[in-house]
Amino acid sequence: MQIHYVLKTTIIAVLSTYLIESSAQISGDSTHQDTLNQYCVSCHNETLKTAGLLLDYLDPYNISRDTATWEKVLRKLRNRQMPPAGLPRPDDTTYDGLISHISSELDRNAFENPNPGRPDVHRLNRTEYANAIRDLLGLEVDSTELLPADEIGYGFDNIGDVLTISPFLMERYLSAAANISRLAIGDTGISTTYKTYDMPGTLVQSDWMGSDLPYGSQGGVAIEHHFPVDGEYLIKVKLQTGRYGQVLGRDKKRVMDIRLDDEMLGRFTIEADERGNVDINIVKETVDEHLEVQVPVKAGTHTIVATFVKDFTKMEGQPKAFTAAEIRNREQAFFEGVGTLSVVGPYDVTGPGETINRNKLFICHPSHGDDEQICVREIISMLIRRAYRRPITEEDLPVFLKLYEQGKLKGGFESGIRMALQKVLVSPEFLFRMEFDPSNIMPGKAYSVTDLDLASRLSFFLWSSIPDEELLSIAERGLLKNPETLQSQVQRMLKDPRSMSLIKNFAGQWLFLRNMERVLPDPVAFPNFDENLRQAMQRETEMLFESMLREDQSIVNILDSDYTFLNERLARHYEIKGIFGPEFRKVKITDDRRKGLLGQGSILTVTSYPNRTAPTIRGKWVLEQLLGTPPPPPPPDVPSLKEDKDTKALTMRQRMELHRANPACAVCHKVMDPLGFALENFDGLGRWRETAGTGTGPIDSSGILPDGTSFNGPAGLREVLLSKQDLFVETFTDRLLTYALGRGVEHYDKPVIRKIRRDAAEHNYSWSAIITGIVNSIPFQMRRASL
């Protein structure tokens, strides 16, 4: 009933909009075919077939015959990409009239003939798998160690049609289930393991590293480690070494503390070496072999800290912070750092312990034989219900009860539960999100998904995880589709810390932010890039997005935000003064060049080459990720930008102009390059510069778009993007809808995106308005039956 109400009001709203727009254009309708004939058909016809697009037989007054083609036409017209630069173009009134006519006809057709699409069966990707384990069992697992990386489709790793399963992957799931089930019960028979945490060689440890470490300490590391059972564990620290294996920081005596949570486990002295630490004959040293302690630890997750006691008597003039270049040279006798931290154990196991995971799993304990079957059924039923995201049936239980009995014979009650849990974790109903067509539905017919399926769609969209108890209970009672209830759940879930997954997984992939973890800037071109800067850049963008989501700001603020989040390392990179320490804080941006996404080091770094900027990559990123108008792929066998002694004295713009001399390249580069050149004052790490090198002269960051729009520098480009606000909002919605559905957006989804944008405009394009629009949309709440 509720979905029918939503659809009814939606259709009325769309038709009203359509009638108003149509009535305003009746006098101009007769010109639409003439406009196409004059400006489009001369290239896009049966003879030339330019870009494979044929318009000579398309009727602008019967758009429903080929909505896919008309959506392509509409996209090119709205961004003024067609006709190409240099060819005659219609005036703005003609452009707008044709755009309005096509979009109105497409929207009317879509809502008269709703097509929600049909997502493929969706295997949990490894992020979703880890989150599901966390929410089901209270265990934090590193899915990157358990499972291989997922394939990417449409820019995201949660796309159903690429999340296939191979025999190798199934073996990994079986192995993961065995390990996780033993951790969950606190198996006292668990084998001794050796887990090592490596510190990046470019992590500068010359000062206090943040709130995870004691204030007044220097360098070091804080690790969250899960201890599976009560017992003794060995904690070992190895120091950073130079290129020849020599331990660094031996110019004077050092003192190191090793702590577990707030408890001091040991304080160790590292003696000075009068020989220094650059003797190439010293390949292996034993100076750090005593940096270990074996202690009893209670089961659960604890914080291990290894850090140096800061020496406040250092000589005057010693640098406060080392540069990455100095680290790479490995010739700074006063540089010291933690290289690895290892945990070995357990030894002398004393019991499973009291842990979050055990309390979450063992919701009852049989006190005598008569209670056993009742308790076993209660635990297994709880596991199946939460893992399968649906109520349990009597048909579910027999196989699990049989497995329980088999496990019980090997080790009693808890061993039996472990065997049943292991089966749950490899079941298709846990590993896959499966939606089934109603038995009485006609092939190809659109229908509303069940409340339970809607709950899973919602939780994996906002949390990348399974529904929690509240959401699942509402869905089981058939109340989730109530508009007020659904809206309330969306708001609750967005406020929950688990919604951080939406930032890390959606924004991280949409903006290529995840690539920060893999970028390797050339140490010759960028000698001062270090791990601290890499982490700070990524954290800045994540914190900005989180701030906007929590405050429910307009998504347009992403483009021109006048604040950001900085620590000392990143502020120094941006040449912003007055920021001290490793902690991030909100900072007002007064320099127009740094406002919004286009001024952030993370974005500028992932859109550069390792040794230089890449105007084409940056321009393509703006076109694709912000304006939703990707250029066509480059023609085959086009040579890369020439790099030799003759071109080194040229500016990047001059070198690109040589590249564009190839006519096959010029068409796309005329669109991409001006956008990229606007950001050319930012080097390959996002640092501001006036020249690109000695003898190249001032950087020219001006540009002209095919429609004649001119701009200069990042501030000018930002104004261009703000003038195309509708395109940006629709691009954001397109990307978020792709992520939410786990499938690519098709031409029949485009009218939905335009409606979400129109509705969100009434709420200043707030995050919640866009997200609620998606959750209430036809493709999110409905599904097409198989043919």
Strand proportion, as a percent range, falls in 5-15%
The N- to C-terminal Cα distance equals: 26 Å
- Count of β-strands: 16
Question: What share of the residues lie within helices?
Answer: 40-55%
Mean pLDDT: 88
The gyration radius over C-alpha positions equals 30 Å
pLDDT < 50 runs, ≥5 residues:
1-29, 315-320, 329-334
- Structural class computed from helices and strand pairing: alpha+beta
The profile of the biggest β sheet is: 4 strands, antiparallel
Q: How many H/I helices? A: 29
Dominant shape: flat
Please list the strands of the largest sheet in the order they lie side by side: 2-9-4-7
Q: Explain this structure to me?
A:
With 787 residues, this protein is α+β, with helices and mostly antiparallel strands. Among the domains are: 2-112, no CATH class; 193-351, Galactose-binding domain-like (Jelly Rolls); 503-723, no CATH class. Helix content is 42%, strand content 12%. The protein has 29 helices and 16 strands. The protein has a 4-stranded antiparallel sheet with strand order 2-9-4-7, with no helix packed on it. The longest helix has 22 residues, at 2-23.
